[in-house]
Design goal:
With 449 residues, this protein is mainly α. It has a domain of 104 residues. 62% of the residues lie in helices and 3% in strands. The protein is built from 15 helices and three strands. A three-stranded antiparallel β-sheet has the order 1-3-2. The longest helix is centred in the last third of the chain and has 39 residues. It is globular and about 70 Å long. The N and C termini lie far apart (65 Å).
Length: 449
């Protein structure tokens, strides 16, 4: 990886932008293909009826859409404009992310408590690993957000693969998680040392060397030994518990409303249990859960850095999901109807795997307020009050990742005082419920027959 840093930056940015444009072209196809109302617009999809065959030149990013203007008579005037712009936007965003994380190393540099020169070339592997993981996460969020904008839904075909790939990445490369800088007399189990250009370790005032380590569920505190010890029974129990919690969350848990003559709660409970069991024991969820259980057990048995990464990702998945789920319940109660779709919950499962639950908390501070502004504008302009929430979660997650170097130093003090965290979460969720209730009151003057 160090050799990559010898390549001139402009050339690296051009290559990353070109790869981003190619990825953007495929993401456009995913947006159209995975939507509930599927549309055959992308040249990477099967050719729609009424248009001529499409060649490889039509599949070129950006240029292909200029050629496909010929199909506007069948697919609609200007249908090619949005996908062309999206490819340009994604290519530019990925190149900017590379410059920010790898060249400017702005996820790690602001975390350093001492003004000592650092040999960033020695951290090339860490920087590129973080960039790749965040680019992959951005790709899945990109597809989910645009489908949510179009249809106000986020399909499982986006969040399931994103969750699995996130767990795979953080298992193989645990340093793909958001970073923290720690000083320890002994190197943490998963870390990379910070060294000066002369090859000397960067040390704190006590003489302990600094390391770049991934944030984990207990950061800034250490992992509890009872959880992360080699082949700990508590560790495998928590890991499998998180995995099966995910399975229960996405299974069919619909509560029956009426059951004909027998409408007692115990009869409904029996029907509910039958639905849940049928979904858990059917393909593909059954196979996914059993395969995941086997793989988790294998990584736990092997131990090491891979188990640290996988367990951190599984806990981040559950806590990210649980937080948004609580917001969904409170918001629905405050508004008297469903506040957000369950796709927003599965989206935060996917995000929580790579960014961790601490970053998910920052998302709660950002996404609701952004949604509130747009919601008030929609009410004032009388354009309805059904607003897709997924794009705001994705924007907030992107903001948190990009400015992690500024976010974590201000947040780690809060997380160090563990007893404050549940209070903060409760206050955030309660404030969200209050804001939604205020929206309900504010829109009444505009709801006139």
């Amino acid at each position: 990886m160090q050799q990559l840093m010898d390549v001139p930056l402009p050339l690296r940015l051009i290559v990353v932008a070109l790869l981003g444009a190619v990825a953007g072209s495929l993401l456009n196809a995913a947006v159209y293909e995975f939507a509930y109302d599927r549309r055959r617009c992308s040249p990477w999809q099967p050719t729609p009826e009424g248009v001529g065959p499409r060649g490889w030149l039509d599949r070129l990013p950006v240029i292909g859409w200029l050629r496909l203007r010929r199909d506007a008579g069948v697919l609609g005037r200007g249908y090619w404009v949005r996908p062309l712009l999206l490819e340009l936007m994604f290519a530019g965003a990925v190149a900017a992310l590379y410059w920010w994380e790898v060249d400017r190393h702005m996820l790690i540099d602001p975390l350093l408590p001492v003004a000592t020169p650092v040999d960033w070339r020695a951290l090339s592997g860490v920087l590129h690993t973080q960039f790749f993981a965040h680019a992959v996460l951005a790709a899945f969020m990109w597809v989910g957000a645009w489908i949510d904008i179009d249809e106000k839904t986020i399909p499982d075909a986006v969040t399931w693969p994103g969750t699995f790939l996130g767990l795979l990445l953080i298992t193989l490369t645990p340093l793909a998680a958001l970073p923290q800088v720690v000083s320890e007399p002994v190197a943490p189990a998963v870390s990379a040392p910070l060294v000066t250009p002369a090859g000397q370790p960067v040390m704190d005032f006590n003489g302990d060397p600094f390391y770049v380590a991934p944030t984990q569920p207990f950061s800034p505190n250490d992992w509890p030994e009872w959880l992360i010890a080699p082949r700990s029974r508590w560790g495998i129990a928590v890991g499998l518990g998180c995995w099966w919690f995910w399975g229960l969350a996405i299974a069919d848990r619909t509560w029956p409303r009426r059951l004909g003559r027998s409408n007692h709660w115990w009869a409904k409970l029996g029907v509910w249990r039958g639905r849940l069991w049928r979904d858990l024991s059917s393909f593909p969820l059954r196979n996914v859960l059993l395969t995941g259980t086997l793989l988790i057990a294998m990584v736990w048995f092997a131990g090491g850095a891979a188990w640290h990464g996988l367990l951190s990702g599984l806990i981040g998945l559950v806590l990210g999901c649980a937080l948004v789920w609580a917001v969904r319940v409170v918001g629905s109660a405050a508004m008297g109807r469903e506040a957000m779709g369950f796709g927003d919950v599965t989206l935060m499962m996917m995000i929580g795997v790579l960014v961790g639950w601490q970053a998910c908390l920052a998302v709660f501070f950002l996404a609701p307020f952004a949604g509130l502004v747009l919601g008030l504008l929609s009410l004032i302009l009388r354009r309805g009050d059904a607003i897709p929430y997924g794009p705001f979660l994705c924007l907030a997650a992107a903001f948190t990742v990009v400015f992690w170097g500024k976010v974590w130093p201000r947040a780690e003090v809060l997380f160090a005082a563990g007893w404050l965290v549940p209070i903060v979460l409760g206050v955030c969720i309660a404030l969200l419920g209050l804001l939604l209730m205020l929206i309900q009151l504010a829109k009444r003057p505009f709801m006139r027959d």
